[in-house]
Design a protein that fits this description.
Chain lengths: 302, 365, 426
């Protein structure tokens, strides 16, 4: 294989791995948005919380890494659902703006709690992946990256099966489509809202732990990645789970490839232009398709 | 002549008055009095600098409230315009050395121009989509600030040597009747004077035709079009006015701090502004000021008296489990949540409730 | 009843005034400042027995990892000093710590909060924060010790830097690579730097070294702090055939960078600037890779090295006054800052003037301050004559050591570093 091709494929692989993380976070955004109409700014906080919980389970309680992931996701889901139950349920019918602000408030609460409990130091999550690699076809793959991609594929598949075939998935879709009609059919909107938050939080926690299992370890700023997942969510269309996954992959690839070819192709645009590529891509696509690639157009009434 | 009952409004003109009731007039006079007197009474540089920053924030928040509260366009890009105003001041006020009114106006012009460029996005995008696109503006902006080294000084930032002076009046060293006032005192008057001026202008804007048009666009833009409001024009106009005011806030920020760097115009700043207009109350000018005071002064209060709060660690190696800032942030978060759960209309909503209570007194309910 | 209302309004106004009258006591500082040699008069921050010093540091937020140990270093030195009686054997020192969260505007607010209560600032952390308070330091005539190794500080009379600037580190590191590290000027020397002021300082040093030694930098990569994906940069460095990469980063990014390089089987000689390293890295999964390929350029000696008197004392004092303190070179940095500030205070007390002017004057008359091997000796004096240390120490990673670092070459100076000129900030 020529070095150019190797470089290209390696960049693509890095993009896929990054995109998988974005996809998980964006999927969490979409689940909440679709069922409750709220953009959850606390997703990054839940991600960090999940990662720290994972650290505690695997380091302090010395659980197997797989179990730690599972427990961290469950715990995060519990927090998410609890927040919905205690706070957000009171906000039904209030302007969406106030609700968004409340999720920002939640973010502000989570952060200091994390640092008060776990401190500011960089922590290493005991895990079997780290910087292990496997070699195949002349390319070197990071084990963690492979797992991230694999987990994302599995989760996304499970997710779609759940929505498509399970009774509760159907209820969630119905509530998202028309909450009042769903209520009239005997679907508990409360339950649907709580479950959406639980799912979103679990997805965030999953993304958090897979990130923290890398060589950089775990620090309180890990939640920042959720910001980069915003374009992924928007790009795909805010109410489209498939769009979130597609958006995540597209954004991840775009970022990794611009980074990879910064010297050859993008040096005119300034250093580190790859950081803003997700946003630029998002803006361009939105100007062409104002509701994202797969989002539904609002029907507006006068 | 028999006086009308106090709640009675008999004409639209009365409804539209800026400061109609005696109450409002008295309140206004009192606020002016407080602003004029405060720096003479409070000499403490800490509180003065907090209040100067609060005033600057209030200016920016009024701008955002016009856009978000009155026109219904959510913008997370406010920090971008504030940064643009600060850099503009570094050049116009600092490098060219022009006097205060000119660098303020130049910043406003640059802000309006940038707002005019960004505004058209609002024609194509709505609601949350617009919010996230303006969020992109923050990151694109940061990239620009880091790379346009001639204008912004790149990563190292740039000093802002804009003189807060016009002619013989120098706000960094005011001399009134033989008495010399410090830089912080001077800036307090300058900034809060501008808060009053901009609040007045904004208030005037929203009570007249354009203001009603903005609110029509906010409530339902297509219906507004039907009744003859050119929604597109007003959306772009709202962006321009809002970012012009934001740039003025940035200009003040830069000249007060005398140094700015690209790290300051980040998402957190935008979120802080959003928090201010929501906590203060969407669609109220007074609420923006209340919100700025609340969001700016609360952390300062906690910070000042943190030593007396049990469990707070005020020094390295000291007792306690939570640092002052962490506590601050947590309290801030809890307050936002509590506030909005209890009063989604924000501080201005509470103010309104108090007012109605006393209006109907003694028949309050 | 308009009358009632008016009365009420007037009463309320009076109330507001009364409340605001409780505001503050003013900032004039009071006191004469002057005094007799050895017994300075009272002044702002000095009540005749205790000298108060300000600390403006990020005690929370992402940079707290640096701010906390640094401030602990300040504190341990002064605790030790106080246990021996204090400045000039009689004046105790007290620190007034304020959290800046690494934000320039918060730093300005906190500066205003405490400036009336302190004689000087023994720590202002962060280049942007320092630049933000610098104009006020100048107008208020206050002395502050910046906690960053920026070359800009050398020629500012209101600042009291310690340690060899980042530029010196970079120049010495490259010199070592070219002379003893197996490189030549035909080697492919590259950089990987954080896209901010700190990264640029390192790049300036590399550029100087390139000029002196006559090589061209083969490839330069930049990254934004806190990103997740470094595959592109590592690809580019590997593609350019880099044999030596000079890295400026912070620990968590450095971990990701080394991890990505390890995964990509890219193994040049990495020379990383001191802030790229934290003890946790030596216990992480990338430690074996770092042991094989990474050198850290810093100053002083390894933690707990009893051969260096300064280190021996410092570890003893740390154990005594801050038993929970983990080995950390930011701690040593804070400790050194406090020593430099103490030298200034001793001088000012000897001259009998602890006022702001007195302290500034004392800082100009300070000769060379020695740090017992914890960092190079710093020649103070008037700003144009100041001469920062030009020495660096190279460390390799060794998980068995307390801080995970083992000395490779102690306290060396290259000619290029000796001749490097520090200019005034533009």
């Amino acid at each position: 294989m020529s070095p150019e091709l190797t470089a290209f494929l390696t960049n693509c692989f890095a993009g896929l791995a990054l995109g998988s993380t974005y996809a998980l976070v964006a999927l969490g955004f979409v689940v909440i948005y679709k069922s409750t109409g709220v953009i959850n700014f606390a997703q990054g906080g839940l991600l960090a919380l999940g990662a720290y919980l994972g650290y505690t389970f695997s380091e302090n309680l010395a659980l197997a890494f797989g179990l730690s992931i599972l427990f961290a996701c469950l715990a995060a889901a519990f927090v998410g659902a609890g927040f919905e139950r205690i706070v957000l349920r009171r906000m039904v019918g209030q302007p969406p703006f106030a609700v968004i602000m409340i999720t920002i408030g939640l973010l502000f609460i989570i952060e200091p709690v994390l640092t008060a409990v776990w401190g500011f130091d960089n922590l290493q999550v005991p895990n079997p992946w780290n910087i292990q690699t496997v070699e195949a076809g002349g390319l070197v793959f990071g084990v963690r990256d492979l797992w991230t991609i694999g987990i994302t594929i599995a989760v996304v598949t499970a997710f779609f099966l759940f929505f498509r075939f399970s009774g509760f998935g159907l209820a969630m879709r119905a509530t998202a489509f028309d909450p009042e009609a769903a209520l009239a059919q005997g679907i508990s909107a409360k339950k649907v809202y709580a479950v959406s938050w639980a799912i979103a939080a679990a997805l965030a926690a999953l993304a958090g732990i897979t990130l923290a299992a890398g060589p950089g370890g775990l620090s309180p700023s890990i939640g920042f990645i959720a910001l980069a997942a915003f374009p992924a969510m928007i790009l795909g269309g805010m109410d489209s789970p498939a769009g979130a996954v597609l958006g995540g992959i597209v954004i991840g690839l775009a970022e990794a490839l611009t980074r990879g070819y910064q010297d050859q192709l993008f040096s005119w645009a300034g250093d580190n232009v790859s950081i803003i590529v997700p946003y630029l891509l998002m803006i361009v696509i939105l100007l062409i398709r104002p509701y994202g690639l797969l989002g539904t157009k609002d029907v507006r009434r006068i | 002549m028999a006086k009308p009952h106090r709640n009675l409004t008999r004409a639209y003109a009365q409804d539209l008055r800026l400061f109609g009731t005696p109450w409002a007039k008295a309140g206004l006079a009192m606020m002016i009095l407080v602003v004029v007197m405060l720096p003479m009474v409070v000499h403490d540089d800490f509180w003065l600098s907090i209040l100067v920053y609060v005033g600057i924030t209030a200016v920016g928040a009024i701008g955002l409230n016009l856009l978000t509260g009155y026109c219904g366009q959510i913008s997370l890009g406010h920090a971008f315009f504030i940064g643009a105003g600060a850099y503009c001041t570094a050049i116009v006020g600092g490098d060219l050395g022009l006097p205060l009114p000119l660098w303020l106006l130049a910043a406003a012009a640059v802000g309006a121009l940038l707002g005019g460029v960004i505004g058209p996005f609002a024609l194509r995008l709505r609601g949350n989509y617009l919010a996230i696109v303006t969020l992109g503006l923050i990151f694109v902006g940061e990239h620009l600030w880091r790379n346009l080294k001639d204008v912004t000084g790149g990563n190292s930032g740039t000093s802002v040597a804009a003189p807060p002076a016009v002619g013989p009046i120098d706000f960094s060293r005011l001399e009134i009747a033989g008495e010399v006032y410090s830089r912080n005192q001077g800036y307090f008057w300058l900034v809060w004077g501008l808060v009053a001026l901009i609040a007045l202008l904004a208030k005037n804007l929203v009570r007249t035709r354009p203001g009603r048009a903005l609110q029509a666009v906010r409530d339902r833009d297509q219906a507004a079009e039907v009744i003859g409001v050119r929604a597109g024009h007003y959306k772009i106009g709202a962006f321009m006015v809002s970012s012009a005011i934001a740039a003025v806030a940035g200009a003040l920020f830069g000249s007060y701090q005398q140094f700015v760097s690209p790290d300051e115009w980040n998402l957190l700043l935008s979120i802080q502004y959003i928090a201010i207009v929501i906590v203060g109350g969407l669609g109220t000018i007074f609420g923006s000021i209340l919100g700025a005071v609340f969001v700016g002064a609360l952390p300062a209060l906690i910070d000042r008296y943190s030593a007396d709060i049990p469990g707070v660690r005020t020094s390295v190696g000291g007792e306690g489990f939570i640092s002052v800032f962490a506590l601050n942030q947590a309290i801030f978060g809890v307050l936002i949540v509590l506030f909005l759960v209890l009063e989604p209309r924000g501080l201005a909503g509470i103010w309104l409730r108090v007012k109605t209570y006393f209006k109907a007194w003694p028949f309050s309910y | 009843m308009p009358h009632n209302r008016l009365a009420l309004a007037a009463g309320f106004a009076a109330l507001v005034l009364a409340v605001s009258a409780c505001g503050g006591a003013g900032d004039s500082g009071g006191g004469s400042g002057g005094g007799d040699a050895g017994t300075p008069g009272t002044t702002a921050g000095f009540d005749g027995t205790t000298i108060k010093l300000g600390v403006l540091s990020p005690l929370s937020g992402p940079v707290a990892v640096i701010g906390l140990p640094l401030t602990a270093g300040n504190k341990v030195w002064f605790d030790h000093l106080n246990s021996t009686g204090g400045v000039a054997g009689k004046y105790k020192v007290e620190l007034v710590q304020e959290d800046t969260q690494y934000k320039p505007d918060v730093t300005v607010q906190q500066y205003n909060k405490v400036k009336g209560n302190v004689v000087a600032f023994t720590q202002v952390l962060g280049t942007p924060s320092t630049l933000a308070v610098l104009p006020q330091l100048k107008t208020d005539k206050v002395l502050a010790a910046p906690a960053s190794l920026d070359a800009l500080w050398v020629r500012e009379e209101n600042l009291l830097p310690v340690g060899g600037p980042y530029q010196v580190q970079a120049i010495n590191a490259i010199d070592y690579y070219l002379t003893e590290g197996g490189g030549s000027k035909d080697s492919k020397i590259c950089t990987m730097s954080q896209d901010d002021v700190y990264g640029e300082a390192g790049l300036a040093g590399v550029a100087e070294a390139a000029k002196v030694h006559g090589f061209t930098v083969a490839n330069q990569q930049k990254f934004k702090a806190g990103t997740e994906n470094y595959a592109g940069q590592i690809q580019a460095l590997a593609g350019a055939g880099c044999q030596m990469v000079f890295l400026t980063a912070t620990p968590s990014d450095a971990g990701k960078i080394f991890g990505t390089a390890a995964q990509g089987r890219f193994a040049p000689k990495w020379y990383a600037q001191s802030p790229s390293y934290a003890g946790a890295l030596s216990k992480s999964a990338v430690a074996p890779y770092m042991q094989a390929n990474v050198l850290i350029v810093s100053e002083g000696t390894e933690w707990g090295d009893t051969n260096v008197p300064g280190m021996k004392d410092m570890v003893e004092r740390a154990t005594k006054f801050a038993p929970a303190q983990q080995p950390d070179y930011y701690f040593a940095f804070g400790y050194n800052q406090a020593r430099a500030m103490t030298a200034v205070l001793e001088k000012a007390v000897a001259k009998g003037n602890l006022s702001r002017d007195g302290i500034l004057a004392a800082s100009k008359e300070l000769g060379t301050v020695t740090f017992d091997g914890l960092t190079g000796d710093y020649k103070y004096g008037s700003v144009d004559d100041r001469n920062p240390p030009r020495t660096s120490t190279l460390f390799a990673i060794d998980p068995a050591k307390p801080f995970g670092l083992k000395t490779v070459k102690y306290n060396f100076t290259s000619d290029a570093a000796k001749n490097y000129e520090f200019k005034k900030a533009g």
